[in-house]
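Reading a protein record of the kind used here takes only a little practice. The record below shows the convention in full:
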Amino acid sequence: MPKTSIFKIVFLLFLVNFASAQIQKNSPLFITLKKQDSIFFERGFNRCDLEYLEKIIAKDLKFYHDQSGFQNKKLFFENTRKYICPDSDKKPIRKLQEGSLKVFPLYNNGELYGAIQKGTHNFYIREKGKDDIWTSTAKFTSVWTKNKEEWILNEVLSYDHHKPNTKSKQLSAINQLLSDNKVPAMGIGILENGKLTKVQVYGSLDGEKTAPYNTIFKVASLTKPVFAFTVLTLIDKGLLGLDEPLYQYWIDPDIKNDERHKKLTPRIILSHQTGFPNWRYLKEPKKLEFQFDPGTKYQYSGEGFEYLRKAIEHKFNKKIEELTNEYVFKPAKMTDTRFWWDTTMDETRYAQNFDNKGNKIPTKKYYKANSAANLLTTVEDYGRFMEYVINDTSLSKNIFGEMIKHQVKLEDNSYFGLGWQILTNFSKNEYGLIHTGKDPGVSTLAIIFPKSKNGYLIFLNGDNVDKVYENILSKELYLGLELWNMR
């Protein structure tokens, strides 16, 4: 047999073996490497976070480019500063082509030490006040190595650069969608198999300044699931009873003469069965009062959550910020979330709020924690919270079961658990834990599907959001069309 034929056979066998090593897209390693790609290029390339790049790139980086030649780490950083991150109004960005990513594990004597990542990137030019322009496409192959729990980028091949083979050269329709509906910014986080795999922020903070990867959004009532999870953790640790009467710790002066206050428990409050209005100030005489007996039916109430906050703070002699930091923020690795505008708040990253006509709403700063509203957070941080919840490793099966239990029925296929609304009757035998948030210039949504451990969150800093939700849910997200049709 000719040598060339032998070579071809060997080469083909190599490709077959290589392809067979590709891991499934729902595997933990694939999801981890997909997240690495998303965060690496969004923070390092698109947002020019060079300090982050320095930490995640190996000292002996080898970067091979089919047009710019070989680069070591020093030259790579020089070129990044010069061509990718210059001080100009035009900025190159890149995004992963959906469905192109492949991951191949690297083992040494059965122990995972790295992975090869392959895919296709689309490149764009971002210019202030204009839609992103699609300029080129290229393939990439990256070698990541694992150092304990950290992944380090060691080698990169960037090749097959060419112009896009489509008439449409604009970025996705998302930026146009936001512009058409006068919503300046949108943040999306996606969870797959219990892991946050995508964090993406589109648009601008204020109609002009590009919204960064770590944009801070006010998320309104998405505060409630965070507070509820803090309470459930206290219950799980035996520090508080789910059905423990709260009057021994706190009685609101407005209802001290109404004996029904003795019926209030964490279960009743977290399932919105207190009998309280949403907020006392919305209705005369602007005093807290029972509108029905606690525990008899559902009525959404921020007052109830605040009542529980005050009772807990009195019981433990600690503020809710301290308790949540200890039992949720730290274990969930949430480092960029706060209840109010404290000294760590970076106002330059805040997504300012806009009404349905696109007019800016004056920013109202809160300087006191509220368990029902006003949480300030990022897509990545709230995504980490959802990871923490969805993997049900922080609560016992008993308390997690209470959280997802149908505590009270709202309507057909809709219930309330503890801190989350529960929607049933999805396809694939799924059910969803969902919560939304709404304030002037704020619209947010978070949903997790406990069976598949998929989920997503959407943060918007405008009021005119219906068409945005319809487009994103029906075209982009897991069971999103079904969710939209349930509205």
Q: What stands out?
A: Residues 22-170 form a domain with the Nuclear Transport Factor 2; Chain: A, fold (CATH 3.10.450.50). The mean pLDDT is 90. The first helix runs from residue 3 to 20. Residues 105 and 115 are 4 Å apart (CA to CA).
